[in-house]
Amino acid sequence: MTAALFQSRYVPFAEEIGLVRALAAFSLTNERRLNDYWRQVEAFDAVCVNPDGARQWWRVVREGHEAWISLDPGETRHEPPEPPCVVVDLLEAEHPSWSCRKLLAHIVEHYRSIPNPYESEIRRLAIVEERLRDTSEEGPRLPAAVLAEIRGAVETDRHAVGRVLSFVYDEYLLSGRCNIDYLTEIIAIAQLQSAAGVHIAEDWLGEPLGAAYAFVELILNDNDRRDRMIGDTAQFCADTFTMARKDVASALDETEMFAMTRKLLLALHRFELVFLIDKTFRAAGVTLDGSGLSPILIEESYVCTLTGLCSGAQFVIEPPQDVALGLRRQVGSVDPTLAQLKRAARLRAREFEPAFTRRFADILAAEALSQFSSAEVATPGIEELLRLKATSPPGAFERGWINMALRSAFMRFDRQDDLAKIALEIAASAMLRHVEAPDA
Amino acid sequence: MRDGSVLIEKTQDILGLEAYRIFPDSRRFIPDVIVASVAAACLGEFIKGFVNFKKLGEGARAKFDELIRRWRAKDDFERYAKQEDAVELVSKAIATIPEKLPSLVQAQARLQAALEEFGLSKAAAEEHAKRIAQLLENED
Fold first, then answer.
1. Which residue of B15, B28, B116 to mutate against A (max A Cβ within 10 Å)?
2. Nearest CA to A273 among A345, A208, A204?
3. A88 touching chain B per CB within 8 A
4. B25-50: b or e for each residue (b if 16 or more CB lie within 10 Å)?
5. ipTM (interface predicted TM)
6. Stretch A8-29: mean pLDDT, rounded?
7. How far is residue A123's CA from residue A143's CA, in Å, rounded to a whole number?
8. d(CA A119, CA A207)
């Protein structure tokens, strides 16, 4: 797989979606972990020959810890699985054939052909270029002044922490200027100090996670503070988890794919925050029962959102027609209904894999139906595409996608008049994008 | 007549990741059939007071009750739900409930209690039960 946007096929505003989605994925964690993730995805995607039908496990080593992952049925173990089984070592896999870094570099290059990008795109491009220059293993961290401000706020009061975090979210988390897992560790330890009503005198910014483990253990041994700490933290986790689920729900309901990514990033950070805090308590032998959350729920919420963000980035390098074609294969019927295709499309537009908005999933379902060679089967798909374009105000990307799908369908059924109209619209939008100054 | 599969799908959207509670902590990658089965059992719990079991048949009733019991108790639910096709079973039960439903207050309270037993916090259980009740109300 190369890192060309939509396999170099023309999709209006593809570079904007590509930039937002790839930058989001690039910000999830440090680059080494990210590449490990893609390598794992590629390994899982590869067809494995297992003639004996024995259960297959993947052995994964992350930061010195071994884990065995089975996909069918899905399970993760930290002890070797019992025979009979087949164990495939992921360590022997090649490096991923594509990476966010390659994709981002390609997008930056692609932008050179656009004479007047939007102001927001110019700002985002500057961040991407800065990120690409940084080849350090840990990736960008928060500047010392911001860290000092967070520390100062923790030593003041909860309201001060809230004000600083609001700034940090906007400037670093949502803009892609900082690794989310590092930032989440900082916020986790800040939150723990808030819940305990006491702050750490020593430096906790260098190794925030290590400080969090030590701090929780210390407070849990303090009888005066223990109960308050457990109660407040459990409530914080429950509230944060609820907010994160609302972020995902709201992202899925967005009318534009473009706007979805920010909400998913915030959700991911919140799920990770709960995940880290819950882990520090479990390590100290305490479960936050008051939160009503179980470890599997917390971890999978994080993993599912991460998958949605990563699969959303990978989507921009897939051939556009293949996305809808995949739905036809998935449904398997020779003459599927629109409802069946929508159901299949929405599998990537739900909490388990929030890669698309529900609206975009419906566009893909309609496109899949419109791709059939029989006019009788395809016509409801074409009509649905026209309806989606007319009744809901889609964003520039969605409108462009619908237009390209309609163009293919009109060509297939030789609808010359319709084809002429849609070609005109596509050409006009491409011309505006490449000639006019959009912010003028 | 109500479309059971549509109601179950909407319930899946409401429950979302909560379906994972059916699994032990070591399990991952929940299959779609289990997500749908958990939603079906949850909806079954809500509608059980309205089902015309005479129409549904004795055998189906026993399976329907057993499905809900296994869901609440997390007792080998996965195998049973696949074996008995939970979505089909609950869809058939939905088809027997009257068009006009009496008050849903009791059903909602019962489902809330079941969801709390399933592991949800009181607030989350209350919200989910309310949204599922609204699904049924809006179908009227």
1. B28
2. A208
3. no
4. eebbbbeeebbbbbbbbbbbbbbbeb
5. 0.87
6. 88
7. 19
8. 37
| Cβ <8 Å between A73 and B27 | yes
Q: Does B79 touch chain A (CB under 8 A)?
A: no
Alpha-carbon torsion angle A415, A420, A422, A426, nearest 10: 140
Hunting for tokens 């994709």 — which residue is that?
A103
The model's pLDDT over A309-355, given as tens digits with 9 standing for 90+, comes to 998 888 888 888 888 888 988 888 888 999 999 999 999 999 999 99
Q: Vertex A303, ends A72 and A87: CA angle to 5°?
A: 35
* Helix pair A223-252, B122-139: axis angle to 10 deg: 30
Amino acid (one-letter) located at A173: L
Instruction: Give per-residue pLDDT as tens, A161-196.
Output: 888 989 999 999 999 999 999 999 999 999 999 888
Structure token digits, residue B131: 């949204």
Mean confidence (pLDDT) of chain A:
88
Token pair for residue A122? 């110019």
Range A10-32 average pLDDT: 88
Tokens describing residue A210: 């290590």
